[in-house]
UniProtKB/TrEMBL annotation:
PROSITE patterns, A to Z: GATASE_COBBQ
GO MF term list: carbon-nitrogen ligase activity on lipid II; glutaminase activity
Pfam families hit by this protein: GATase_3
Domain of life per record: Bacteria
Protein name: Lipid II isoglutaminyl synthase (glutamine-hydrolyzing) subunit GatD
Protein's organism: Paraconexibacter sp. AEG42_29
Lineage, highest ranks first: Bacteria, Bacillati, Actinomycetota, Thermoleophilia, Solirubrobacterales
């Protein structure tokens, strides 16, 4: 049974004002403090008086596609990805497709991003992915793509282009199929392959990116966009005092050389 890790009630008692997050393999797929992404979502809900529920789904545990608004899978070492890739396909693939089809957000970071595609080839081994994004990843003999990164993104519901800044560290090179949109355009750093100029991938509310950092504390605006999409809200989220978050974003941008 998936384990409930955090529960906090909405201030107004209305269940629709609760963000329900399911973390996939929170123990295995969690490097570079990916947990910070989940805690940031929790904090921003609490500050707005919204409820927050975090459930962790590990090996062998089926997930209910209707019980969560946002599914999250963080980064992982190749060996950790190998432990969960087949399980993801066997026990969670259908639910994730059903959830995505009804508009739930699915966010994969780095190793999690790679497993949202069709496959991750590691020499003679091929790890299966869930195929929510039309892409495949190949482990490259060459150097790992490591360093600070910044990308420009244009997203529905948002005016103008925004910047996501953070840190990447991956050996895999991710190749998008012809019709698959990227998440953004590389401004600094390496991105999907090191030379394609594309970073991440997005199909509707399914989002994958190589950007750690952690991603959301350095890009709080993105956390709000994901929350807004996950809950299918008509009205914008209440503004927060983001002085600290803006400083973190500015520092991540500066680290990437912007
Ligand atoms: N193991 C994967 C790679 O090296 C993903 C790494 C990560 O999640 N940082 O490509």
């Amino acid at each position: 049974m998936p384990e409930t890790l955090i529960v906090s009630e909405p201030r107004d008692g209305r269940p629709e004002h609760t963000l329900r997050v399911c973390a996939l393999y929170p123990d295995l797929m969690n490097i570079y403090a990916d947990r910070g992404n989940l805690l940031l979502l929790e904090r921003r809900c609490a500050w707005r008086g919204m409820g927050f529920v975090l459930t962790g789904a590990g090996l062998g545990e089926a997930v209910d596609p209707d019980a969560h608004d946002l599914f999250y899978m963080g980064g992982g070492q190749d060996r950790d990805q190998a432990l969960c890739a087949q399980d993801l396909v066997d026990t969670k693939r259908e639910a994730l497709h059903a959830a995505a089809a009804r508009g739930a957000v699915v966010l994969g970071v780095c190793g999690g991003y790679q497993l949202l595609g069709h496959s991750y080839e590691l020499g003679d081994d091929v790890l299966p992915g869930v195929g929510l994004l039309d892409l495949k990843t190949v482990r490259h003999e060459g150097p790992r793509l490591i360093g600070n990164v910044a990308i420009e993104v244009t997203l529905p519901d948002l005016d103008g282009a925004r910047t996501i800044a953070g840190f990447e560290n991956h050996g895999g090179r991710t190749h998008l199929a012809a019709g698959q949109g990227s998440l953004g355009r590389v401004l600094a750093g390496r991105g999907n392959t090191g030379d394609s100029g594309a970073e991440g991938a997005r199909s509707g509310n399914v989002v994958g990116t190589y950007i750690h950092g952690p991603l959301l504390p350095k890009n709080a605006w993105l956390a709000d966009w994901l929350t807004h999409r996950a809950l299918g809200l008509d009205r914008p989220l209440a503004p927060l005092d983001d002085a600290m978050e803006d400083a973190a974003h500015a520092s991540a941008r500066a680290a990437a050389g912007l």
